[in-house]
Amino acid sequence: MFRFRLDSASGVPPYLQLVHQVRQSLLLGYLREGDRLPTVKDVVSDLAINPNTVVKAYRQLEHEGLAGGKPGQGTFITGTLSPATPDTHHALRASLERWLRDADAAGLNDDEVTALIAVARNDMRKEKV
Amino acid sequence: MIWVSWRQSRSQAIACLGVLAALAVYAILVGSSMRTAFSHDGLAACLARSQGTSCPAAVSAFMNKFGSAVNIAFWSVLLIAPGLLGVLVGAPLIARELEFGTWRLAWSQTVPRTRWLAVKLALVTGGLVLLGAAITAVITWYRAPMDRLTGHLINNVYDFEGLVLTAYILCAFGFALLAGLLLRRSIPAMIAAFIPWLAIRLAVEYLLRPNFQAPLTFRQNCASGCSVGAGIGSVPPVTGHIGDWVLGQPAGQSGNQLVSYLYQPADRFWHFQFIEAGLFVALTAAALGAAIWLLHRRPA
Amino acid sequence: MIHDDVVGNAPALRTAGLGRRYGHVWGLRDCTLTVPAGAVVGLVGPNGAGKTTLLQMIIGLLQPTEGQLEVFGETTRANSAKALARVGYVAQDHPLYRDFTVADMFHLGRAMNPSWDQGVATARMDALGIPLKRKIKSLSGGQQAQVSLAMALAKRAPLLALDEPVSSLDPIARLDFMRELMAAAADTGVTVIVASHVVSELERLCDWLIVLTGGRMQLAGPVDDLLAAHRLLTVPRATRDAELPGLAIHRADSDRHSTVLVRIDPARLAAQERREWGVEPVGFEQLVLAYLQRPSGASTDNPAQAAARPGPATKEVTR
């Protein structure tokens, strides 16, 4: 059975943590199409979290097309994450390494790099909103 | 709810039965030897003939044997025993729930708190009545030979026979229950209840009881000499009738030929018992009623 | 979530202007909220804030001084069998009779509750490995708490109220207790209200939140809605509260900037937001702590479900 975990200190809402863990596992191949996710009761007994949280997470996964419930049988993985093709990954990785070398040459340390990324992301999000 | 009341009172009930059993053992041991002595010394026949005047030596021998100091001390302690019993049972009944916080469990089940109390009271007072009756029966049986010499209207006998012992227990119980509700701690409640109980007990015995009915007067002709105060506490008493309770001499009699004694006749025993028991039962009812009302009105 | 349809569609709890006075002091005042059936409610506040007062009124142990209280649509007099039957209660420090055995405690439950389900109680003890013949005083704190919980669950009441049930337990016992509680919520759809002052543990448990300080309700509503209605803004120090797109709940000023937790007024958001402001979502614990730190007399329109959905913040209309 797939076991979830909960990080109370992370600041990320519990239901999102569950969703992320499923996505992550799909990416890494630990979850495959057809696998059965644990029942709400199972997760609740394991993690001591609100049943609604699990329901919400599973609904989110359904919404994203990753999982689906069969009445009386449980919730099953129905889709896969389509990661970017290996070529896209490769190209993105290459431009990232170039950028990192530029930042390093400009004298930025790790924290500054992380902060810069966070700020840029934030601004981009706001533009979308 | 009956099971719950029983289960919570179970250890107290067992302790009371233990006390009763110990008392019964003592009573049987001493009572048997009393009975033996009574018939052996020919006191029965003597009493039948005379009211004890014809065998003063046998009478005083018997009285000395079974009226010893140890005995007296024992019986003095026993005087406060009904009070102790009552407060020990009554104080924790509500106070312990409040002290340990278990009221939050007891009163949040589907039984309103007043019904909770009512059932407990019914069971426990019923038990105390039975206990009181049993103790009274044991002591009455034990004292039977002695009672034939002294009657049971006089102090320290009256207090253990008839109805009053049970009534004393109930009154102490009622006071302690109410005190427990008000003070919320068992031990302070025991003390706070015992003191007024004792005060009332003594006041009734020494101030009220002699006057439940107007005392009668007996005049003794002392022309041919009689020692002052001879009548009090002797067998038979100065009135010549066993069982009469001689209260004493009214004031201002020195130097008279005719000495007057106030007394209560023996046949008033049950009448007095009913009055005194009624008084203490009324106090009990008042205390319990107040407790039920206060519990009903208590915020939480 | 599996719902027990016994109680129909009535909200589990509805209060209007609920208050309780002790002598001259108001333990709770002006409490208005509507909690849906099946919610798991966290009731948060410092000691003396009125959590126990509110719970005792809900349970039926305490009569309100003013206002209305409905549990599943019914108002009943406190301390009546009807009121007491509706709520299962685990009091602070899970009081039990120490000389009783576990079986005795369940016997008491059966004797005093017509709706008692002995099977529920014994099944829990089986699952936890607690023998029925054991005396309560020889159980560990965690086991005693489980017995209390089993009793409250076996009563089969549609609402379960717990007053700081785990404050005296070690972390493992705490987790075990919460597991059992949430499993029961998943199984039966029982509505749960947990009073606690340990905020960090509540996030995983609660989908509904009530914050009380000084006898007043500071915040009440579904957790998701409340979180969506607040933002953490990083603004220049000189920014005045009035320039913010909503009510400032908590403000921390540094030399050049301030961090403000704001309850957003959607009508003002678009107009007032500035580019140089940092905007972040608010976390559960942040939100609760911010409201706990507000002075209890702070002016606020009634926060009950105030920011539930985009729309002007309004007082909950009470019927």
Distinctive features:
heterotrimer, A: 129 residues, mainly alpha, Arc Repressor Mutant, subunit A, 2 domains, 5 helices, B: 300 residues, 9 helices, elongated
Tally of individual helices of chain C: 10
Can you give the helix content of chain A as a percent range?
Answer: 55-70%
> Percent of residues of chain C in beta strands?
25-35%
- Under CATH, the homologous superfamily of the largest domain in chain C reads P-loop containing nucleotide triphosphate hydrolases
Largest sheet of chain C: 6 strands, mixed
Contiguous uncertain segments of 5+ residues of chain C: 1-6, 302-319
* Distance between the amino and carboxyl termini of chain A: 39 Å
* pLDDT averaged residue by residue of chain A: 84
Q: Provide the gyration radius of chain C in Å.
A: 21 Å
Instruction: Please give the CATH class of the largest domain in chain C.
Output: Alpha Beta
Low-confidence stretches of chain A: none
Question: Would you mind describing this structure in some detail?
Answer:
- The complex is a heterotrimer of chains A (129), B (300) and C (319).
- Chain A has helices at 14-28, 40-47, 51-63, 86-105, 110-128, and strands at residues 36-37, 67-70, 74-77.
- By secondary structure, chain A is mainly α.
- Chain A has two domains: 14-77, Winged helix-like DNA-binding domain superfamily/Winged helix DNA-binding domain (Arc Repressor Mutant, subunit A, Orthogonal Bundle); 86-128, no CATH class.
- In chain A, a hairpin with a 3-residue loop joins strand 2 and strand 3 (74-77).
- The relative contact order of chain A is 0.11.
- The model of chain A has no long low-confidence stretch (mean pLDDT 84).
- The radius of gyration of chain B is 23 Å and the shape is elongated.
- Chain B is mainly alpha-helical.
- With 319 residues, chain C is an alpha/beta fold.
- Chain C folds into two domains: 5-221, 3-Layer(aba) Sandwich (Rossmann fold), CATH 3.40.50.300; 224-293.
- In chain C, the strands form three sheets. Chain C has a six-stranded mixed β-sheet with strand order 5-6-7-3-8-9, sandwiched between helices.
- In chain C, strand 11 (246-253) and strand 12 (257-264) form a beta hairpin.
- The longest helix of chain C has 18 residues, at 171-188.
- Chain C is elongated.
- The model of chain C is unreliable at 1-6 and 302-319 (pLDDT under 50).
- Classes of the chains: A mainly alpha (129), B mainly alpha (300), C alpha/beta (319).
- The interface between B and C is medium-sized, with 23 and 33 residues.
